[in-house]
Amino acid sequence: MTEWIKCSERLPEESGRYLVCDVPYKIMSAVAYSARWKRFNCYDTFDEEYVNGQGEYAVTHWMTLPDVPTEVEGC
User: Fold this and answer.
1) What percent of the chain lies above the pLDDT cut of 70?
2) Does the global pTM surpass 0.90?
3) How far apart are CA 50 and CA 48, in angstroms?
4) Quick one: which of 2, 35, 43, 36 has its CA closest to 19?
């Protein structure tokens, strides 16, 4: 499993979906990241006006998503 990376140390180099965490609130979720805008919860296709109007998504750490399970099994 990949280790958590502090946003203050480095951001992802590529756009895509990442597992993110807001440490003070202990919230984790998978969100889009835009390398173009260097923001989480954002897509490369957004225009500048829209990006500037968005509230900042509180992310303190991120990591790549784990691989999807290959076995099919019901709960």
Assistant:
1) 84
2) no
3) 5
4) 2
